[in-house]
Amino acid sequence: MYHISSRIAIACATSLVLAGCAKSDQAAKDSASAAAASEMAAPAPAPAPPAALSLSSLAGKWQFRSVPASGTDTTSTNYVLTATADSTWEIKFTSGLKVPMHVSVSGDSLIEKTATFASQRRKGVKVMTDGALRMQDGKLVGTTVAHYSTKGADSVLSLHTEGTKLP
Predict the structure, then answer these.
(1) Helices (H), 47-105
(2) Domain that holds residue 27
(3) For a designed S-S bond to 158, which of 34, 69, 106, 152 qualifies (C-beta 3.0 to 4.6 A apart)?
(4) Residue 127: which CATH number?
(5) Three-state SS for 13?
(6) How many C-alpha atoms does 137 have within 13 Å on its Cβ side?
């Protein structure tokens, strides 16, 4: 009888060990599945914010084209912008007119403003411009607003502006 009880005790102990191992294997599989699921469910990291601009990184000559944002006039105003590491830049229109431009950087935006000059779009009218540009795919892209001096209230024209750095 002692012999049979020993065998039963050994069989029970073996069953408990095997059951414990089976539970450990299943728990490991469950943990691995849960980890994989949480990795798949985790949101993708947010894209990095655009790098802040610096005047020195923009230094050089840029070919610009500005086109009215709306209306029937789709002719472009073309000019070369000479950018330096300081805040005073210069526009040179195809007519030869040179206009100083004051610039500043705010985060990823270049803020631009000119003094009053002879309009290249409207003969005999004075204009001043301001706007904001951002770097997109290696180009400076944004909106320029032309403020025309007229006998009545000022007239405003919004233009899409895009510049490509010259080699």
Answers:
(1) 55-58
(2) 1-42
(3) 69
(4) 2.40.128.120
(5) helix
(6) 3
Same domain, residue pair 78 and 143: yes
* Phi–psi pair at 126, nearest 5 degrees: -90, 150
Which is more confidently placed, 150 or 76?
Answer: 76
Residue 124's pLDDT is what? Answer: 94
Shared domain check, 62 and 38: no
φ, ψ of residue 15 to 5 degrees: the values are -60, -40
- Global confidence as pTM: 0.69
Token representation of residue 49: 């914010």
72-93 pLDDT, tens digit per residue, is: 989 999 999 999 999 999 999 9
Examine the domain organization and report whether 131 and 86 are in the same domain. yes
CB 132 within 8 A of CB 110: yes
More confident residue, 96 or 53: 96
Task: Report the number of distinct structural domains present in the chain.
Answer: 2
Which structure tokens are listed for 11?
């069989």
Q: How far is CA 147 from CA 41, 99, 121, in A?
A: 52, 15, 12
